[in-house]
Automatic annotation (TrEMBL):
Its main location: membrane. This is SulP family sulfate permease. It comes from the Bacteria. Keywords: Membrane, Transmembrane, Transmembrane helix. It comes from Pseudochelatococcus contaminans.
Length: 595
């Protein structure tokens, strides 16, 4: 009986001719989960589970896709095109079993801004370029780096997006009529809405309020029922039955088409590409973060593992496909993906069927969409905005530490009052700086004779940190100084470590610096050691470095920390023994000279 090649390699570890691959091959990394599931054996019961889940997700996606499109400044039909084409391609080609692609609330502000400055053609071109960029990012295997986005940044960003979405729905929630275009900046928007309050529409407000109450009530008491669709359908029936004087999809957009448009390329020109490139980059950054976060949520719920770079390539293809059919940005959607998992989906077929069900709605029931009141869709997005704010996470982060609170607050405020990408970049930068500061504080210098850890500016230190001796035999000899550096030794800690070493230096005859607890050393730290070693060598002291790992030693050698300035020893015992022997020899020479 033959065994699997991996098993054979593992079983014969002693055979040097056998080779175990270090990781998955390029083909394995980019094999869609759809193919993986089919290879496992796809049964009729699996298809039934996926069909039920796909229908459930389609019921959620139908009103949500139209609401997001309208809030983004485009027609509801483009939201459906995005969900149908984008959702189909994400599930067919993606690296997650359960990811549902489509339009997302996080893109509302970016899409609306792009439409207002570049028009629909500019939006479609930006979506096309974003798709190409996403595919490139995926093929370059950069998706792994998305995991480095800190948690406070994602929480603050999501809360900021939620505020922006809610602010964008106030007009339709209250049925207001503005005298001009609705401003994008939050303060100007609120001022314009306040000026329009005399046009307040009671029917619109009651429809929106009823929609919100129905959604929340069904979620609380009948969570398995499609609350979004039921609320919107009831609002449409009431609007039609009582002929309410409110804006509907039919009155504002003329309804939605009953067919998909023919695919076509947007108008291409160098000037137009340059004009929309910043929007395309913003779509790429936000889309990669949103889709991979959604995939991680699905992994957490199911215990599966997604292929991040394969997922980004699929998102890229989906954005290109959406643009060709007149849609806009596609990304993985957390709420719809979670709904898919809870509905019992088995694999990517559920996402494919969700797109098929949405297509059937366009083909068979598009005229019914004309009666949907915009106030009801505004109510849907109001509940989406509320759910986007992770209330418990915000409260926890604000209490956790001052650093996390600063990152969260800065990301939130910049997202709301400045720019989405600026909020992410500044939040990430602050998080990185705080991380470097914490890492620098974790680096310690222990000495055989107790000393205080030095800093560049003593006035900033509330109290000295006294380091306990770890080698009492060395401490008994004042002419031998033994120090141990522990922690990742990098530029953030280089100055304080250098100051500490200088404080330790009492002009002894021998120094031993133990590097066995240093996993990493950068150029700045190596330069600090080189400076210390050179000064000690100039005074005639014997300097030894013990326990340096190969990578650490290589960096030190590259920066001039080499013989005859320093002697490298394998362990601390050998280094200390040599230091004592050298000091005894020096003393003997001194005594002989005196005699």
């Amino acid at each position: 009986m033959s065994s699997h090649p991996r098993e054979t390699s593992s079983a014969s570890r002693g055979d040097s001719r056998q080779h175990v691959p270090d990781g998955p091959s390029f083909v394995e990394l980019f094999t869609p989960k759809f193919i993986t599931v089919m290879r496992e054996g796809y049964t009729l019961s699996n298809f039934k589970a996926d069909a039920i889940a796909g229908l459930t997700v389609a019921i959620v996606a139908l009103p949500l896709s139209m609401a997001i499109a309208i809030a983004s400044g485009v027609g509801p039909d483009r939201g459906l095109y995005t969900a149908i084409i984008g959702g189909f391609l994400v599930s067919l080609l993606g690296g997650s079993r359960f990811q549902i692609g489509g339009p997302a609330g996080a893109f509302i502000v970016l899409v609306a801004t792009t439409v207002s400055t570049q028009g629909i053609e500019g939006l479609i071109l930006a979506t096309l370029l974003s798709g190409i960029l996403l595919a490139v990012v995926g093929f370059l295997q950069l998706g792994t780096f998305i995991k480095y986005i800190p948690y406070p940044v994602t929480v603050g960003f999501s809360a900021g997006i939620a505020v922006i979405i809610f602010a964008s729905q106030i007009k339709d929630l209250f049925g207001l009529t503005l005298s001009g275009p609705e401003p994008s900046p939050i303060f100007e928007k609120l001022a314009a809405l306040a000026d329009a309050m005399p046009t307040f529409s009671v029917p619109s407000f009651l429809l929106a309020a009823a929609t919100i109450v129905i959604i929340i009530g069904l979620r609380e008491y009948r969570p398995r029922m499609p609350g979004l669709l039921i609320a919107v359908a009831l609002a449409a029936v009431v609007t039609w039955a009582f002929d309410l004087p409110v804006d509907t999809i039919g009155t504002r957009f003329g309804g939605i088409p009953q067919t998909l448009p023919a695919p076509q390329l947007p108008t291409l020109s160098i000037d137009k590409i340059i004009a929309v490139l910043p929007a395309a980059i913003a779509f790429t950054l936000l889309g990669s973060i949103e889709s991979l976060l959604s995939a991680v949520v699905a992994d957490t719920m199911t215990g599966r593992r997604h292929r991040s770079n394969c997922e980004l390539v699929a998102q890229g293809v989906a954005n290109v496909g959406s643009a060709l059919f007149g849609g806009f940005c596609v990304t993985g959607t957390i709420a719809r993906t979670a709904t898919n998992v809870r509905a019992g989906a088995y694999g990517p077929m559920a996402g494919i069927l969700h797109s098929v069900f949405l297509l059937l709605f366009i083909l068979l029931a598009a005229p019914l969409a004309s009666f949907i009141p915009l106030a009801a869709l505004a109510g849907v997005l109001a509940t989406v905005a509320w759910n986007m704010v992770e209330k418990h996470a915000v409260a926890t982060l604000l209490r956790a530490s001052r650093g996390d609170a600063v990152v969260l607050t800065a990301t939130f405020l910049l997202t709301v009052f400045r720019d989405l990408v600026e909020g992410i970049v500044v939040g990430f930068t602050l998080s990185a700086l705080l991380f470097l500061h914490r890492m620098a504080q974790s680096v310690e210098v222990e000495n055989a004779a107790s000393v205080s850890l030095g800093t560049e500016d003593q006035s900033d230190v509330g109290e000295d940190r006294t380091l306990a001796p770890y080698d009492t035999s060395a401490a008994s000899d004042p002419d031998v100084v033994v120090s141990r550096i522990s922690g990742a030794f990098f530029f953030g800690a280089a100055a304080s470590v250098g100051t500490t070493l200088d404080q330790i230096a009492r002009r002894p005859k021998a120094y031993v610096i133990d590097f066995s607890a240093v996993p990493f050393l950068d150029s700045t730290a190596a330069s600090t050691i080189e400076s210390f070693v050179r000064k000690g060598h100039a005074r005639g002291a014997l300097i030894s470095i013990s326990g340096a790992r190969p990578g650490v030693r290589r960096t030190l050698l590259l920066h001039g920390v080499r013989h005859p300035l320093v002697h490298f020893k394998a362990n601390i015992d050998d280094a200390v023994a040599d230091a004592h022997a050298a000091v005894r020899a020096i003393r003997a020479q001194e005594q002989a000279a005196q005699a």
